[in-house]
Amino acid sequence: MLSLGQVRVLVAGLDHPEGVTVDADGGLYAGGEAGQVYRVDPEAGTVQQVADTGGFLLGLCADSSGRLYACDVAAGAVLRVDPRTGSVETWSRGAPDRPLVNPNWPVFTDDGTLYVTDSGSWQGDDGCILRVSADGTTAVWTEEVSSFPNGACLTADGTALLVLESCTPALVRVRIGSDGRAGPREVLAELPGTVPDGVTVTEDGTAYVCCYRPDRILAVRPTGEVDVLVDDPQGTVLAAPTNGVWLEPERTRLVTGNLGRWHLSVLEPGGIGVPLRYGQVP
Fold it and tell me: Rounded CA gap, 207 and 223, in Å?
């Protein structure tokens, strides 16, 4: 277990940041609760707003061209943002028979497929995961992960999606078939007494889970054992930590959003993080 003194504020002055990501060049980005898109310089400790969707941003990811894909819960859509120009366009509003209700977290695969968790309603057991093709065509991928599916990430080999169910609460796995279809929902670890929000993984298979409640980060080992990595009883350094991303190029430093405050935190939890994948999108 880490002491809280091993966690520090990386940069302040953001508007309740939830989603964080890095692009293919290692640039760090975060989103705000009024639709702000921030570019962060982790070494200088500075932040610059580069775009504004006018909504409420949750999860973020980037394609191979450096464009960001933002889950905007106010817009009920996944938006594509170009941080170089500030342009914002709608990428997906969901499937024809399943419009997005609560788009929460996007995950790219190399071929440009974007998996998006739609949390649905709190305690409504009506969430799902959608699959957006590289041309923007959207379909429901699985409805088995329905208990407020939230943060997600690919496994190291890219063959499965790890997803947090906030209302179960649990970390689950869904394998990606050779035909792209979803495998069955598999529970890797139950997380009682928490509201898990975001997940990242290391090369050795450890999953680090940021919890909206209480203010802590968990380590889920490949065996399924769950440890408290670090806890903040006062919620000042870790304040509703929501999602995490590994800083390039060494991927030993984990940056977390803090929905309850105005800063990003950084820590070294142990291990080397699995790099993100950046979809090839026209």
Answer: 11
Using alpha carbons, list the distances in angstroms from residue 42 to 122, 188, 196, 203, 231: 34, 33, 25, 23, 23
Q: Round to whole Å and give the CA distance between 250 and 273.
A: 8
Half-sphere exposure of 49 (CA within 13 A, CB side): 15
SS3 69: strand
Model-wide pTM > 0.90? yes
Half-sphere exposure for 23 (CA within 13 Å, toward CB): 22
pLDDT band at 130 (very low <50, low <70, confident <90, very high): very high
Is residue 281 within 8 A of residue 64, CB to CB? The reply is: yes
48 is written with which tokens?
A: 């610059």
Largest CA distance in the chain: 49
Burial class (CB in 10 A: 0-12, 13-18, 19+), 132: buried
Whether the CB-CB separation of 100 and 118 falls below 8 Å is answered with yes
pLDDT digits (tens, 9 = 90+) for 254-277: 999 999 999 999 999 999 999 999
Q: Which domains does the chain have, with CATH numbers?
A: 4-267 (2.120.10.30)
- Both tokens of residue 97? 């028979």
